Amino acid sequence: MKTPLRVKFMTWLxxxxxxxxxxxAGILCAFNLHEQKEHxxxxxxxxxxxxxxxxxxxxxxxxxxxxxxxxxxxxxxPLRDVLxxxxxxxxxxxxxxxxxxxxxxxxxxxxxxxxxAFARYRDALNRLDRFSREAAHQLxxxxxxxxxxx
Length: 150
Known about the structure:
Layout: H1 5-38, H2 43-59, H3 61-90, H4 106-149
Helix pairs in contact: 1-2, 1-3
């Protein structure tokens, strides 16, 4: 089973933020160790500040997960709209165009390309239908004559 793109994108956002958190925690730890060396009498206060900062970082993780979910959902919604329209086209609704919010980004260009391809496909189907009707009409008269004389 494939992992949905939204989950991959959300995971990427979370990993990037966790990397920043680890870097910040390392900087805080180094700063705390430096302060303890410089001011040994303030070590308890520095340790308390360090614990508060780590606690705040840990408490912000649910906010991080929620915001990553919202951001990934919002960023991927145009792609989801293109997919929904393409599925409708696949089910036979060839006249439904794919609408993209921005015409200049990659999704807008993809939608325009798909719309153009389906417009050409519709034209080919219309030409084939027109040819079939004309061929049937052209063959009716000679067939009717053969059946009448036979």
